[in-house]
Write a structure and sequence with these properties.
By secondary structure, this protein is mainly alpha-helical. The protein is built from 13 helices and no strands. Helix 1 packs across helix 3 and helix 11 packs antiparallel against helix 12.
Amino acid sequence: MDNSEQPGEKIVQYLDGEMTGQELRNFESELAVNPALQAELDNLGLAHTAVMHYGLKQQVAAVHQTMMAELRNESATQGRGKVVPLFRTVLKIAAALFIGGLLYGAYQYTTTTPAGFAKDNYQPYTISAERGETSKSTVETAYINNDYKGTIAAFEKTTTPTVKEQFLAAQAYLGNHQPAKAIKAFIAVLANQGAAYKDDAEYYLADAYIQNGQPSKAKPLLVKIHNDTDHLYHSKVTRWTLVKVDILIFKSGN
């Protein structure tokens, strides 16, 4: 981390998505070995999201500039005259963030549900017919045609399904609101020693657990995806995604 910048400033840049390239990699590497920095990031995350949600970012930025100017003036004069106005400004910002955080937290707690989470995060998996491909199974054909019921029917008649057929059947179960059966099929895919569909199955298995009212089983999968920058679905699992899962775990009790 650049020692010329305070940790708080780096965290705000990180939360705002202003870090890129090597700077981002260095910061995330330090997060992995610095518990104090990780704790500060966790503490600022919810307040930051609240500020973004209520459109206060510009106001806070303006106040921040005022604060920094007052800090510089106070440091230069070494007097006490600037301390009281600065302290009042800090209190106003703290109060605004605290109230905004409480309101936003209450709103998210009330509105975060398995159905809402699925609506925000689930997108049907799509495949297309490959050029030159002459033979497709009944399961594949039905799925390509967005026929979930036909996919399921064909799969359940198959005695020795391939990994691809298991994966597509799991997607069909999920799209047909049968998360328990989707879970079983995704687990079968992941039990296969090959790497095919591994990342996809992990992400959609987590979604199936959420839809099935088992957020505590989804959490480890989502944490793994969030921490693995090479995972295909890394960008889809943010820190706020994990906060919502924690809310679901708290509300469901499992």
